[in-house]
Every structure is written in C-alpha cells, then in structure tokens.
Write a structure and sequence with these properties.
Radius of gyration: 16 Å
Strand content: under 5%
Order of helices and strands: HHHHH
C-alpha cells in the first residue's frame, strides 16, 4: 500500500490542526488498525453556515476582507465555493476575528 499526504502552507494556515490529524492517521496505519474505516477530520458546515459566517465577517471587517477569503478559494461568491472548502473557509473567518 502506498499513501501520499500533501499538506500545503495554505492548509496549515487555514486549518492548523491538520498536522495533528496527519499524525493520527500515521499512528493508525503503524498500529495496523482498520484502514477501511475513514479517518475524518472536518466539521460539516452547510452553505448556509458559510454564508452567515461570511456575512457577519463582512459586517465586522468589511466586504473587501470577505472577498479576499472567497478569492483565496477561487470563488467570487459563496455558492461558487467547493463543499470540501467550507471547513477551511470557516477556519479562515475565525482566524481573523
């Protein structure tokens, strides 16, 4: 079995606990635990959660700051965000507050 884990600086910036999740994965594999069980590390946010958070963020920090977060994920509006990015967007919003 070959496993590749790619962690970028943006991953760490928007989700600093990702390193801990990666350590947990390696530990599970080293101990021979059931690799068929997915290792999940994410909050399940809905588009409504992200929209509300960015709306509140925009009121506090300005619309340009909210647009910078969206642009970091190659989106110009919330509905253009990929669902897999919701957690990272929420982490980015919380990091600036």
């Amino acid at each position: 079995m070959e496993i590749t884990i790619k962690i970028t600086s943006q991953d760490i910036l928007f989700n600093p606990d990702i390193l801990e999740a990666t350590k947990e994965l390696w530990s599970m594999l080293a101990e021979g635990k059931n690799q068929d069980e997915p290792l999940t590390y994410a909050h399940n946010y809905s588009v409504e959660d992200v929209r509300k958070a960015l709306g509140d963020f925009s009121k506090t920090n300005g619309s340009q700051a909210a647009k910078k977060i969206l642009n970091a994920f190659k989106a110009s509006k919330v509905t253009e965000l990929l669902e897999k990015d919701y957690s990272n967007v929420m982490d980015a919003v919380k990091a600036v507050k």
